[in-house]
Design brief:
- The complex is a heterodimer.
- By secondary structure, chain A is mostly beta strands.
- Chain A is built from no helices and eleven strands.
- In chain A, strands 2, 4, 5, 9, 10 and 11 form a six-stranded mixed beta sheet that branches. Chain A has a five-stranded antiparallel beta sheet with strand order 1-3-8-7-6, with no helix packed on it.
- Chain A is globular and about 45 Å long.
- By secondary structure, chain B is an all-beta fold.
- Chain B has no helices and eleven strands.
- In chain B, the strands form two sheets. In chain B, strands 2, 4, 5, 6, 9, 10 and 11 form a seven-stranded mixed beta sheet that branches. Chain B has a four-stranded antiparallel beta sheet with strand order 1-3-8-7, with no helix packed on it.
- Chain B is globular, with a radius of gyration of 13 Å.
- The chains are: A mainly beta, B mainly beta.
- The interface between A and B is medium-sized, with 28 and 32 residues.
Chain lengths: 113, 114
């Protein structure tokens, strides 16, 4: 089945750093979503993007919907310890049956020892 | 995760046993889905439903059955569990016509098959 390629698979952050992750697809999506998952919990929506080229912020988070509609990136500015977790991108087609989503493999964000 | 309740939270099964993962929602959403999450692979769609009495297969349906007799409930059945079904399972709901920001996930069910 279709998969989204998300990179990096993991990263270490130091408090105050800016971090970036991205997601690419071989086909077009009409909606891009970014989720965060904390241990033992389900994914929680961070940002939803609906238009090619759209740049949207949510606090220290900024995400962009690529012009080609085949990619998206998420930036976290001035990272803090609670940013640790797994971040997932997800793509959705227009009027997807059941609102189904296709997910990337996730980026695990860890704190530098 | 408010409004989407999954049970049980944790379960250990022996190979060949059967069990049902329950998902209940109180938001009157028409759409419900089951995903499984495996390390490094994100979430993959197992089955979904667009309303009571209507279900369809997702990306990885083999080994799972579903039914939707009410709007509120969408149980996922494993008829003969296999170690390959060891995973974390998430139920998701959304309203008909909703967009990406109206999808709600449950807290997950951790299943181990030994």
């Amino acid at each position: 089945g279709q998969q989204l390629n998300q990179s990096p698979q993991s990263m270490f952050i130091q408090e105050g750093e800016d971090v970036s992750m991205n997601c690419t697809s071989s086909s077009i999506f009409n909606t891009w979503l970014w989720y965060k998952q904390d241990p033992g919990e389900g994914p929680v929506l961070l940002i939803a993007l609906y238009k090619a080229g759209e740049l949207t912020s949510n606090g220290r988070l900024t995400a962009q919907f690529g012009i080609t509609r085949k990619d998206s990136f998420l930036n976290i500015s001035a990272s803090i310890p609670s940013d640790v977790g797994i971040y997932f991108c997800a793509g959705q087609l227009f009027k997807a049956a059941g609102n189904k989503l296709t997910f990337g493999g996730g980026t695990r964000v860890l704190v530098k020892p | 995760n408010a409004g989407v309740t999954q049970t049980p939270k944790f379960q250990v099964l022996k190979t060949g046993q059967s069990m049902t993962l329950q998902c209940a929602q109180d938001m009157n959403h028409e759409y419900m889905s089951w995903y499984r999450q495996d390390p490094g692979m994100g979430l993959r769609l197992i089955h979904y439903s667009v309303g009571a009495g209507i279900t369809d297969q997702g990306e990885v349906p083999n080994g799972y059955n579903v039914s939707r007799s009410t709007t509120e409930d969408f149980p996922l059945r494993l008829l003969s569990a296999a170690p390959s079904q060891t995973s974390v399972y998430f139920c998701a709901t959304s309203p008909r016509g909703g967009s990406g920001n109206t999808i709600y996930f449950g807290e997950g069910s951790w299943l181990t098959v030994v």
